[in-house]
Amino acid sequence: MLTSSEITERLHAVGTPLRLSLRVFVLFTLIYLSTWAGHYTSGDGAHKIAWAKVMLFGEDPGTHPDQNGVYSKYGIGHSLLAMPSLAAAHLIQKTTGIQTEAALYTLMFVVNGALFLALVAYYLAHFYPSRSVWATVLIMGLATTWWPYTKLDFSEPLVLTTLFLGFIVMRFGHPLLGMMIAGFSMTIRPDAPVILAPLILWYLFGNRSVQALIKTALALAPSLALVLFANYIRYHSIMDRGYSDQRLSNFLLVGLYGILLSSGKGIFLFSPPLLLGVWGWRKFAERKETASDAWLFLAICLAQVLFYAKYWIWSSDDAWGDRYVLPGVLLLCIPMIAVLHRRAFVIPVVIAGVFVQLLAVTVGGLDYLMLIRSAQPERAAVFMGRPSRIDFDDIWFNPNYSQLFGNWILLRYLLHIPPEPGRADEADVVGTRLYDAISPQEWKAAAHWDFIWNLKRSAARGNVSNPPPIPATTSP
Q1: 282 occurs within a structural domain
Q2: What is the tens place of the pLDDT at every residue in 275-312?
Q3: Residue 86 structural domain
Q4: How far apart (Å, rounded) are the C-alpha atoms in residues 10 and 411?
Q5: Same domain (yes/no): 353, 259
Q6: Among 16, 270, 323, 357, which is least packed, fewest CB within 10 Å?
Q7: Which residue in 175, 200, 148 sits closest to 357, CA to CA?
Q8: pLDDT tens digits, 407-440
Q9: Cα(454)–Cα(448) distance, rounded to whole angstroms?
């Protein structure tokens, strides 16, 4: 039987991380609310909302299925998570006449963003002092692409939080429940097994028994059954036909270069603190308490990079950076806690990371891409040939047309310091500058502060009962 002092010691051991995580949650909820956009952002999200509405209310005049009667090919889990906010918005509108659907729906991503960082804090507080934990979550929350994705309604952030919550529950003594929670990620995105598989292997490696294997199967069964049921009610088959045309057909080296090093999608460029995570990984792995966790985080990141490097649309567009690998990038940032004392290197990396995220948080992570789609800019051929359309491969691989540069121009318009036009004779030698490829009027029209208090923009982008017809991406 435990003595009173032992009980007190155990409560303190649990209470300190819990109190710290609650403070992190409150702080980041406030931070993310201050940059909350409150409007729809993606065509993918519109399909997920349409399915949620049909499940909630039946046929809805604002939602329409495709020619096969399917409202959404995406994972049912995202639609299920959206249902409480949609139901609340429906009740508010019915009672008061006020339309809050987009605001309440996108609030889910604000809460999700703060929750993940609170979970990271809870995990790290078991092994590191609170000062180091605070520094880590502040860097992850403000200097990586996690911040912009609290404003974008994609599924990857939900997958990461679900998986990490399951990992936390497993890590601290409840493997069956934790695996069940992590398994729900399969219902959100059909490719979640790419990151779920390393978690399963991590658990089985530490628990080599038939009993552990049976527990894993039982824990994953509910989510797997839900996925199969969702497929059946849509396609009258348990097989997922929504992605039958998706292929792992990309040239591996092109995908690896694009994801790791390209000027338009490189994960180190869009999330500079990943450099700190890679640097600190060895020390994190050498620590007895976190050694196996370090290998898990690395395995998840490598699995995602290798898988999506082969995926036919490896870039994940439309997105801020490469959203597909967001879970792996954030998990591999966690080991940065082991090198935060090296301030001469850490501070410049953090400053660069915050600047990069501000480009997306202030203007809107997809605004430049939407401008490229609508303006149809052209660039002059260098030395020979006729002008050609600036396309997404230019954005991915040509620094002149990168997403970072495009958002920087939009931000400069908001700050009333637009760039100066280039000389006409330069384009034939060094190529057309991005600013000159699009008219000043179009740049100006596309530049808006992307905050919920910008009511005119929020209304225009879907602060209404039905999502706007934003172009859907071709990705899962």
Answers
A1: yes
A2: 999 999 999 999 999 999 999 999 999 999 999 999 99
A3: 10-361
A4: 51
A5: yes
A6: 16
A7: 148
A8: 999 999 999 999 988 776 676 667 788 998 899 9
A9: 8
